[in-house]
Write a structure and sequence with these properties.
The chain is mainly beta and 229 residues long. It has 3 helices and 14 strands.
């Protein structure tokens, strides 16, 4: 998500409080694009792969001045449209159920779902849809660009991902940061314990062939890889 995916970050990004300064310095908030986005050749077909928990994870680390917290989302689903077994001509989509958020503190989990943060009653989902995937100059490493929709705000997002196409599966891992205020999540925290703005997102994806959509996967055009629901 990439997500996250690969995401919105994707994307998932994706969380309502920020990671501590030491962590965010190690994870890129954005990456420089290298190489050229590739277009599937005429007549190319996309094969679709699905991912969801428990084989995949969308996790986050966030902090206020006094303490760091870890959390994750228990319900999400995504699709990878793989063209010619080449990530550069492929695409990913992720949908995250924000009400499935859990953290290492039960009270915090409830607060993050409230109007101070995600406001899941009004904005129940976050989504990420890739627009292109570019090489990074290192084998198996790519820069995924797309649109992350979170808290009613849609913004472009680019983040680094390691992608491996295996026999019968696609594995991907990525780690990056987003700024919660970019998505209208501005709750400051207590005056003596302010919440940091940056949020560290970690994606671990294991996608397998979408067997229920075998007919679609075998016959879909490459362009469908970017529009699959």
């Amino acid at each position: 998500m990439l997500l996250g995916l690969l995401a919105s970050g994707a994307a998932v990004s994706l969380v309502a409080i920020g990671c501590d300064k030491g962590q965010s310095s190690e994870k890129p908030a954005a990456v420089a694009l290298e190489g050229t986005a590739q277009v599937p050749p005429p007549g190319a077909k996309a094969v679709f792969y699905k991912f969801a928990p428990p084989k995949s994870q969308v996790a986050f680390s966030a902090a206020k001045v006094s303490k760091k917290h870890d959390g994750s989302f228990g319900a999400f689903e995504g699709t990878i449209g793989l063209v010619n077994a080449d990530p550069l001509m492929s695409a990913v989509q992720v949908n995250i159920d924000l009400s499935s958020l859990t953290t290492d503190a039960e009270k915090l989990s409830g607060h993050l779902k409230s109007g101070d943060f995600f406001d899941v009653a009004k904005f129940p989902k976050a989504t990420f849809n890739s627009t292109n995937i570019r090489p990074s100059g290192t084998p198996s490493k790519y820069n995924v660009t797309g649109k992350l929709e979170l808290h009613g705000v849609t913004k472009p997002l680019t983040f680094p991902v390691t992608i491996k196409v295996l026999p019968g599966a696609v594995d991907a891992e990525g780690e990056f940061t987003i700024n919660r205020k970019d998505y209208g999540i501005v709750y400051p925290g207590m005056p003596d314990d302010l919440i940091r703005d940056d949020v560290s997102i970690k994606l671990v994806i294991h996608a397998e062939p979408a067997r229920a959509e075998a007919a679609k996967g075998e016959g879909a055009s490459a362009a469908d890889a970017r529009t699959t629901e």
